[in-house]
Amino acid sequence: MPRVPRASDVIEILSERSLLLGIGGIVSMALGGLLYKYRGQGYLSGLAIVLMVIGFAGICLATYFALQVRKVTTHEIKCPYCEESNVLVDTPNDDFPCVNCNRMIPILDGKTVPVSQVRCGYCNELNYYSEKTEVLLCEKCNHEIPIARDDRGPRKTIPAAFIVVDDEALYELQLVGQGHKTEELIQALQHMLALNRNQVKNMLNEMPVTVLTGITRKKAEMLKAQLGLYEGEVEFHPMEEARR
Known about the structure:
Blueprint: H1 7-37, H2 45-70, E1 75-78, E2 85-88, E3 96-97, E4 104-105, E5 107-108, E6 111-112, E7 116-119, E8 126-129, E9 136-137, E10 144-145, E11 148-149, E12 156-157, E13 171-178, H3 182-193, H4 197-205, E14 209-215, H5 217-228, E15 232-238, H6 239-242
Antiparallel strand pairs: 1-2, 3-4, 5-6, 7-8, 9-10, 11-12, 13-14, 13-15
Helix pairs in contact: 1-2, 3-4
């Protein structure tokens, strides 16, 4: 079954067709009009009429595609990893990559499958898994993280030593360093913090810098993993500890 396309991709394709056909139609009609006006003894009348007919057809098709843009349906899916909204034209029938973090969003029966966090027992790297996960390999060290399957249903369990346990404390997220993916990191921070480019660049020049405060541990872990994709070095501490 083909993957459901993104609404933005469909709108872009339809808009591009409308624009190209509209411009082509206008040029064709204008050229046909000029030929008809200066047809002389009538030798160019036939060609002028053909060009005007083609131009009129192009404008009609451009109008049709422009109207189709308004008819594009939308179905919003929120990424369970970075909480970014992904807008498709219909209910998804299979996993698809998130537009922001590029992780595969797990889909089952047209709905997003919740993901859980787990730490690798070998390198302490944060990883994610869902009930659709068959084999979980650490994204950093490539070791397999054991998943115990329940034969009575799809539920899967992780050994207690690997599970990330959330708490009720509030955390402070700090950016302490960056790698070579500066441009990607700036764009991610712009989207995450709703800041302009200059504000984000100033933050990068003042590291270590506090990015967010008053967030849960789970969100801090997710944001750390998200910024880590762009080589951002992130630390988070309980707010009580950060004030000391």
